[in-house]
Every structure is written in structure tokens, then in C-alpha cells.
Design goal:
Layout (H helix, E strand, L loop, with lengths): L2 E6 L4 H11 L7 E8 L2 E8 L2 H5 L11 E7 L14 E2 L5 E9 L2 H10 L12 H12 L7 H12 L2 E9 L6 E6 L4 E4 L4 E4 L11 E4 L5 E4 L4 E4 L5 E2 L4 E2 L15 H7 L1 H10 L2 E2 L2 E2 L8 H6 L2 E6 L1 H18 L3 E5 H4 L10 E7 L5 H12 L3 E6 L5 H5 L2 E4 L12 H21 L4 H23 L2 H10 L4 E6 L2 H17 L2 E6 L16 E6 L5 H13 L3 E6 L10 E4 L8 H19 L18
Parallel strand pairs: 18-19, 18-20, 20-21, 21-22, 23-24, 23-25, 25-26, 26-27
Antiparallel strand pairs: 1-4, 1-10, 2-3, 2-4, 5-6, 6-7, 7-8, 8-12, 9-10, 9-11, 11-15, 12-13, 13-14, 16-17
Helix pairs in contact: 3-4, 4-5, 7-13, 7-14, 9-13, 9-16, 13-14, 14-18, 15-18, 16-18
The structure holds 5-amino-5-deoxy-1-O-phosphono-D-mannitol.
The site of 5-amino-5-deoxy-1-O-phosphono-D-mannitol (M6R) has 16 residues, from helix 9.
């Protein structure tokens, strides 16, 4: 999705802005642009395509302005083109704007402005914003220092939808204004300089001190000061937050791709995620105030998320149901929010989002809140929108995840959810303590077991080399092996563009087996000792029909017609997906590499989906 960067200080803004945009590339985009103030004028440079197409524009290196805004656009309204890319100017070229989000009523606003004589050069929704700013600025007869802020306030009152907006104006060449509603935006505080970004990693190398702007708040940035206002321009005081993430965590650090780096970071990410809550055999989760009585009264737990985060929920369902004896429903946020789910104050709704900015997940959370349920957010980003909406928030310690295809966030989410399930179970006292204690000791071994798996990736790489030209593949499993097979299949689709389907092995005979023919590749996950025999029978059915099988198992199975068997260390089936997903992540990765694709930035995808 779109990305925003901004700078105001004493250095040349252009290199900082371009560098910031490069760091936001992972979000997915189709054009890029910057605007700086040069002498008394706003200069805009923009281009279709990658940030390099922008930084190669002739004349860009002549920009010396020390204040500027920048944007990568992921087309929503209007095709990807230079005209539609941001920044957009008003007709008088006194206001430049970049915008993330969608202005839902832009038609109405555009017609209003056209009637007032304004002309439009693009087909975007954004272009109404600089022109509205100009309109309100000129309507205002009072010439004081708040005139620009009032224009921003009045413009925002007209906007319906979601937005994070950066504004430059020749009427105040030493100030930059930003405002947000339902779209992420952070301010990085430096010494005599300040930074803006839609995403912390883009400016992590400059500062670790951030202000998190809330909905409808306006910030006015000077070189040495930041003032915050509510939507009525009453000044407010905001605390500065220090982020622990190191600058290196947003770099490739010697790896060929971010995805490969992030796959290898999983032992550390899980160690830290688990270690923050489980210490000396005791689980403590700061900030969660669920009493035994509240938990006993629950009629249902919903786990709601999108994509990979939803798959993490599907794995964790088994732990909550087994240990807490509470029914768990896992739902896709975009479905949940529109299907009038049965929720009341006896329902606990858990929302998972790596970025914490996924529009559907946030909307689904707001819905549950409005129906009186308690909401708990699980995110990787401190201060992200979802954590500010939820009643309670807990965090994975995965560190910034840059590759579009989620890896370390998924395994950390599963680990954290399982810890949460055990935490509830200990309060509820419905299962034997020894069962929980065994799972605790198993989860502590997981990071070392992942390290073992990562020591030998050759087998997967070789199998990937044999099958990378295929058009379709199948992923099969039972129980939590089925839940994780959905994630394996998604990884493959996302980064290798190979069509794949995931099925519960027992469903094969009910239809999908018709698709199995000579040479088709099947990935079979079999880690649950109590289900392995059943799974093997299913796999024999595909082997006899000529399928090439990659088996991922922790059991001692006979290699009867299987093409490749990846042996995993043994663990509890409730957490085995954290191990079995690793070969599947690598499988998708190596296939993508064999095909010469961009692993980190797959086509059509964005890292964080901040619009519906
Ligand atoms: O930031 P979120 O966890 O809310 O993102 C949810 C999905 O968009 C995300 O998991 C997506 O499916 C990934 N690209 C999967 O690799």
C-alpha cells in the first residue's frame, strides 16, 4: 500500500526522502514522488514505477531544500501513472500534499471545487485535498499564525474516508503539517530535525524516538518543535515513545533477500516472544486483567485476522479448545465485519495483525467493541492502530518484518497465542497441570529445533529445483497439520505465483482427488503421531495416482513411493506448525528464486493492507 516519508531539518531533504521511500518499497507501490521547497517555490518530482525511476530523474540532485514530503503510491483511484502519482498540488501551486488512504466522498468534493473554478489534472481522490486547502485558506480573512492550521482543520472536516496526509505550503515555508484518520502515521523526533513516516522502519536509522499520532490529530512540525492539536485546534501534549528495534533489523544484513533473513531470524523472534512471557516455568502477561470468573463465563472466543495472521489463529484454536474448553471460532476479518457475528459481553474477541494497521481487522475489532465484547489485539508493532483501539494488547517480538510474505511474524504469533492459551488454562484449572507444563517445556525447545532445521536446507532446495516449473500443487494435512498446510499453500502462491490448494487429507476423497494425476506435486504434512497412519493412507492414494510427494514429518514413516521426506524434530502437535512451516517457507522461497522472481516484493501485493 502507499507509503509516506517527510523531513524537516537542516540537511538536504531529497536524499533522506528517497532513502525513506526505498525502505518503504516492501509495502508495494507503482509510482513514487517527492516535493521540496526550493527558494520560495514547491518543486515536485514524480515518476511511474520504482523509486529508482524517481531518483534517476534529471534535476533531482539539484534539489537542496531542507523540507520535503514523499510518497509511494499503490493505485486505488486512477491507474498507475505520473499524473496520478503523489505529491499533488493545488491550482496555485501553493500547497503540496501526499496522502495514504481513500477519500470516499471525493466526487462530491471535486464537483464542488470545479464549480468554484478549480481544475483537476489527475483522476485521483487525493487531488481534492490541496485544492480544498487552497479554497479554505483563501476564504479565511484572518491573517494570523494559525491560518494554515485552520485551512487544514476545515479541509479535514469535509473529508470522509481514511487518510494520513502530509502538507507543504509556500505560505509557511518552515513548517510541515500532518494529519491522520484511520491510516498510520508516525513522527520521528531528532535533534533540530524531524521525520515523518507511515512506517517506523523507514526512519529507524535516523531516530528511535517517536510520536504516535491518533485519529483526527494534527501535528505542526518545525525544525526544532512539534506542536499537536486535536481536530478543533486545541493544543495537546503527546508523550514521546522510544522504540527498541535496532536500525539493522530493517536491513538485509548480508542475506540475499529480506525473506531469507526473516526465515533465519525465527529462532530469535520466538525466543524473545516466548521469553517475554514465560520465565522460570511461570507465565505472566503484563496488562491482561482477565479473572478466572470472566474466563469461566465466556461462551466463545473469536480469533479474527487476515491472511497469514488468520492462519496463526487456526493453529492456536486447538490449544484454546483443548486446554480451556471454550469454543473458538476463527474468522477472516473481511467476512466477520459484515456478517453480524453473534457477540455479546461473554465473548472474547482476539485480533491478530503483524502490522497492526490492516483495515479489515481494525474494523472487525471496532464491531466487537460496539457489541460489548472485550477485545485483545496481538501485534508486532507497538503503538499501531489496532493496539490503540483494543481493550488489551500483547506483542510478538519478531522485529520489523519487511518481506511481503510473512514468516517470522507467523511463527511468533502462533507461539504467543499458545502461551496465551496456556495462561488462560492455568487460570481456568480445567486440565491437568502436567499437560500444560509439558507444553511449556516443548515450546522452550522450539527455537533450537528451528535452528536444527535451518542447518540443512539443501534437500528442500533440490526438491524446489525439480518442481519449480509446475502450475499446480497441493498441500495436505490433518488437525494442526491441516491448519499449517494453508499457510504453506499461501506462501507458495504469494511468492512463486504457482497455483496451490490446501486440503484436509480426509477431504481428498470428497472431490479434490479428481485433480490428482501423474506428476502433480503434493506436500504432505504429518507430525501428529495419533493421525499419522490415517494421513499415510491418504498419501498412498495420491502416490498410486502418480503424484510426486514431499513429506514433512516428525514420525518414522516408511518411504513408500515418496519423493522426498523432510524429517523434523519431535514436538507437541499443538505447536508442531511452528516447525513444519519452516520447510514450506523455504520451499516457496527456493521456487521463487528458481523462477527469478522478486521474493520480497511479489506482484500485486502490499505488506500492509490499510484499505478495504
Ligand atoms: O499486518 P497483518 O498481519 O494484519 O496482515 C495480514 C495479511 O495481509 C498478511 O498476513 C498477508 O497475508 C501476508 N502477505 C502473508 O504472507
Amino acid at each position: 500500500m502507499c507509503g509516506i516519508v517527510g523531513y524537516i531539518g537542516n540537511k538536504k531533504a531529497m536524499p533522506i526522502l528517497v532513502n525513506g521511500l526505498l525502505r518503504l518499497e516492501y509495502r508495494g507501490y507503482d509510482s513514487a514522488g517527492i516535493a521540496t521547497i526550493e527558494d520560495d517555490k514547491i518543486v515536485v518530482m514524480k515518476n511511474k514505477g520504482r523509486v529508482n525511476n524517481l531518483s534517476n530523474l534529471s534535476g533531482i540532485d539539484k534539489l537542496v531544500g531542507t523540507i520535503g514530503i514523499a510518497h509511494t503510491r499503490w493505485a486505488t483511484h486512477g491507474k498507475p501513472s505520473k499524473e496520478n502519482s503523489h505529491p499533488h498540488l493545488d491550482n496555485s501551486k501553493s500547497f503540496a500534499v501526499v496522502h495514504n488512504g481513500i477519500i470516499e466522498n471525493y466526487h462530491e468534493l471535486k464537483n464542488f471545487l470545479i464549480e468554484k473554478g478549480y481544475e483537476f489534472l489527475s483522476t485521483t481522490d487525493t487531488e481534492v485535498i490541496p485544492n480544498l486547502l487552497h479554497y479554505y485558506f483563501n476564504q479565511d480573512s484572518k491573517n494570523d499564525e494559525k491560518k494554515l492550521l485552520r485551512a487544514v482543520k476545515n479541509t479535514c472536516k469535509d473529508l470522509k474516508g481514511s487518510y494520513a496526509i502530509e502538507i507543504l505550503s509556500t505560505y509557511n515555508k518552515d513548517k510541515m503539517i500532518v494529519v491522520r484518520k484511520d491510516s498510520p502515521l508516525v513522527i520521528g523526533k531528532g535533534l533540530e530535525e524531524n521525520y515523518i513516516s507511515s512506517d517506523i522502519p523507514a526512519i529507524l536509522s535516523y531516530t528511535k524516538d517517536f510520536y504516535l499520532i491518533d485519529d483526527n490529530e494534527i501535528a505542526e512540525l518545525s525544525r526544532d518543535k512539534i506542536k499537536f492539536y486535536d481536530s478543533e485546534l486545541n493544543e495537546i501534549i503527546k508523550p514521546v515513545k522510544s522504540i527498541e528495534w535496532g536500525a539493522l533489523s530493517a536491513e538485509k544484513d548480508g542475506y540475499e533477500d529480506f525473506m531469507l533473513k526473516e526465515i533465519h531470524e525465527q529462532p530469535r523472534a520466538i525466543r524473545e516472544t516466548v521469553g517475554a512471557k514465560l520465565d522460570n516455568g511461570k507465565i505472566e502477561i503484563e496488562g491482561l486483567e482477565f479473572s478466572k470468573e470472566y474466563l469461566e463465563n465466556l461462551n466463545k472466543i473469536y480469533i479474527v485476522a487476515c491472511g497469514t495472521a488468520m492462519h496463526a489463529g487456526l493453529v492456536a484454536k486447538a490449544t484454546f479448545e483443548k486446554f480451556c474448553k471454550i469454543p473458538v471460532e476463527v474468522d477472516i476479518a473481511s467476512e466477520f465485519r459484515y456478517r453480524d457475528p453473534l457477540i455479546d459481553e461473554r465473548t472474547l474477541c482476539i485480533y491478530i495483525s503483524q502490522s497492526g494497521e490492516t483495515a479489515d481487522t481494525i474494523a472487525a475489532l471496532k464491531l466487537a467493541k460496539s457489541k460489548g465484547a472485550k477485545t485483545l489485539a496481538i501485534s508486532n508493532v507497538i503503538g499501531s492502530s489496532i493496539t490503540r483501539e483494543a481493550d488489551y494488547s500483547i506483542y510478538t517480538h519478531a522485529g520489523p518484518e519487511i518481506a511481503v510474505a510473512s514468516t517470522k511474524a507467523y511463527t511468533s504469533q502462533v507461539a504467543l497465542l499458545v502461551i496465551l492459551g496456556m495462561y488462560f488454562a492455568e487460570k481456568l484449572e480445567k486440565v491437568d497441570k502436567s499437560e500444560i507444563n509439558n507444553l511449556k517445556s516443548d515450546i522452550l525447545k522450539i527455537p533450537t529445533q528451528i535452528e536444527e532445521i535451518l542447518k540443512n536446507t539443501k534437500q528442500i532446495q533440490e526438491f524446489a529445483r525439480k518442481v519449480y516449473k509446475e502450475k499446480d500443487m497441493f498441500f495436505l494435512g490433518r488437525g494442526t497439520d491441516y491448519a499449517v498446510s494453508l499457510e504453506g499453500s499461501l506462501k507458495l502462491k504469494e511468492i512463486s505465483y504457482i497455483h496451490s490448494e490446501s486440503y484436509a487429507s480426509g477431504e481428498l476423497k470428497h472431490g479434490p482427488i479428481a485433480l490428482i494425476e501423474n506428476g502433480v506435486t503434493v506436500v504432505a504434512i504429518m507430525t501428529n503421531p495419533s493421525l499419522v497412519e490415517k494421513s499415510i493412507s491418504n498419501i498412498q492414494e495420491v502416490v498410486t495416482r502418480g503424484a510426486k510427494v514431499l513429506a514433512i514429518t516428525s514420525e518414522d514413516i516408511k518411504n513408500d513411493g515418496l519423493n522426498e521426506v523432510i524429517k523434523l524434530p519431535k514436538t507437541n502437535p499443538l505447536i508442531s506448525p511452528i516447525l513444519s512451516v519452516i520447510p514450506m517457507q523455504l520451499f516457496a522461497y527456493y521456487i521463487s528464486k528458481e523462477k527469478g522472481l522478486d521474493v520480497d516484493k511479489p506482484r500485486n501485493l502490499a505488506k500492509s493492507v490499510t484499505v478495504e
